[in-house]
Write a structure and sequence with these properties.
This protein is mainly beta. The protein has a single domain (10-189), classed as Lipid/polyisoprenoid-binding, YceI-like (Lipocalin), CATH 2.40.128. It has helices at 10-14, 86-92; strands at residues 28-31, 37-44, 47-53, 57-61, 71-77, 81-82, 105-117, 120-129, 132-143, 149-158, 178-189. Strands 1, 2, 3, 4, 5, 6, 7, 8, 9, 10 and 11 form an eleven-stranded antiparallel β-sheet that branches. The model is unreliable at 1-24 (pLDDT under 50).
């Protein structure tokens, strides 16, 4: 049995960059893709499965002293999906799933950051997958540091809102409609 791809949503994870505040007098502006991860979790026939995106990129601006001014754009090339099997990866690229031939990139653009206290923030923005745009928001935990900061969070999406898993795959009986995007993003300070 193969594992279908359900996660462009992962890019939603990258959204986290648009978040956060803290005590460090540093402005962050460089995403460390090698130290960052964007993954996803879904359920197929009652079994929870994990996957990830091997590549993603982002532009961000985040000043802990002014989190409300933060901005983030994250792009995930969907052809880099890793569902755990070659068959699942190939199927994820098909028209019924991500249709990577017509829609090769998933994109998140932040629109605002709201402090929640204790280094937690709510990030809002627009997520585009397979030509479908949706407003999303999710909590992010910010961990400051002198040489890098991390942003951790997750976002639960309904795959059918983005046209992911059409036809025979549209039923939640085989693949659950809910997909959780999980991310750990590392950002480095801007050069002085």
């Amino acid at each position: 049995m193969h594992r279908p791809p359900l996660t462009r949503l992962a890019l939603a994870g990258a959204l986290a960059f648009g978040t956060a505040g803290g005590a460090w007098a540093v402005e962050y502006g460089t995403l460390d893709s090698a130290a960052s991860t964007v993954g996803f979790r879904f359920s197929q026939m009652g079994v929870t499965l994990d996957g990830q995106f091997k590549r993603f990129s982002g532009q961000l601006r985040f000043d802990p002293a002014k989190p409300e001014a933060a901005s983030t754009t994250v792009e995930v090339p969907l052809s880099g999906i890793d569902t755990g099997t070659a068959e699942g990866n190939d199927e994820a690229k098909a028209k019924t799933w991500f249709d990577t031939a017509a829609h090769p990139v998933a994109r998140f653009v932040s629109s605002g950051v709201k402090p929640l206290g204790a280094n937690r923030y709510e990030v809002a923005g627009e997520l585009t997958i397979k030509g479908n745009r949706r407003a999303v928001s999710f909590p992010v935990t910010y961990t400051p540091g002198p040489s890098a900061a991390s942003f951790d969070g997750s976002l639960t999406l309904n795959r059918t809102d983005f046209g992911i898993g059409e036809g025979e795959w549209s039923s939640a009986e085989i693949v659950a409609h809910k997909v959780e995007v999980v991310f750990h993003l590392v950002a480095k300070p801007l050069a002085p």
